[in-house]
Amino acid sequence: MKQIVDNERFGQLLDEMVERIAEISPPDAEWAIIGIRTRGVAIAERLKERIDRKFGRNLPIGWLDITLYRDDLNELAAHPLVRQTKLEFDPSDLCVILADDVIYTGRTVRAALNALSDYGRPKYVKLAVLVDRGHRELPVAPDITGLKIETDVNEIVEVRMTETDAEDGIYIRTRS
User: Fold this and answer.
1) How far apart are CA 157 and CA 145, in angstroms?
2) What is the Cα–Cα distance from 60 to 80, expressed in whole angstroms?
3) How far is CA 143 from CA 59, 81, 154, 171, in A?
4) For residue 63, what is the DSSP state?
5) Which residue in 39, 47, 87, 132 has a CA-CA distance of 20 to 30 Å to 160?
6) What is d(CA 126, CA 69) in angstroms, rounded to the nearest whole number?
C-alpha cells in the first residue's frame, strides 16, 4: 500500500474544496450539505465545519444511506447492512452539496441522487468528492474535487479518516 496524501495535505485538500464551493455557490442561496455513508458523512461534516467558520453560515447537514438504491443490490449479501439516513430538513428548493470520499464508476452518485429524490427536489445538487480516480461507467462528474488521480482498475483508493480509521490519509493499494 502506498500513501499518496498525508494528514497535513488532507486538511489542505478540504480547505481547497471549501474555496471551490464558495466560488460556485450563489451567495444568496440556501445551501445544505449531505454526505453519502460512510466516509462521505465525515467529509460532509468537515466541509460544513470549515464553511460555517469561514463564511459565518450554519449549513443544515444530513446523510444518506444508499444501500437499497444500489444497482448491484442482488449481488450483495442476502441481508445487506442498511444504515440510517438522517435528513432533518426538506432539501426541496435548496442548493445541496452532495459529499463523498471517492468517485469511481459513478454508480454510488446515481444511487445517492435516487435516494435524495425520495426526500424532496433540490434546486441544485453539486457533487463534492475528495478523490476522483476516474474510470466512470456513468456520465457523472464532480463539481468540486480535492484530488484527481489516475488509477488502474485493479487498484483501490482508500481514504482513511480519524472518525473511522484513527488517521487521515489517502492510500492506493492493489486489489487482491
Assistant:
1) 15
2) 29
3) 19, 29, 26, 23
4) E
5) 87
6) 19
Is pTM beyond 0.70? Reply is yes
Looking up cell 442498511 gives 82
142: which 3 cell numbers? Answer: 464532480
**35: amino acid identity, one letter:** G
Query: Which pLDDT does position 76 carry in this prediction?
Result: 55
C-alpha cell, 66: 444508499
How confident is the prediction along the chain (176 residues), in pLDDT tens digits per residue? 999 999 999 999 999 999 999 999 877 889 999 999 989 999 999 999 999 999 999 999 999 999 888 776 556 555 666 678 999 999 999 999 999 999 999 999 999 999 999 999 999 999 999 999 999 999 999 999 999 999 999 999 999 999 989 999 999 999 98
C-alpha cell at 153: 482498475
Q: Strand, helix or coil at 144?
A: strand
Residues in the chain: 176
Percentages (nearest 5) of helix, strand, coil residues in the chain = 30, 30, 40
Q: For 18-66, where are the E strands, in sequence order?
A: 31-36, 61-64
Residue with cell 448491484: 72
Q: Is 129 in contact with 123 (CB distance < 8 Å)?
A: no
Strands 95-103 and 2-5, bridge-based pairing: unpaired
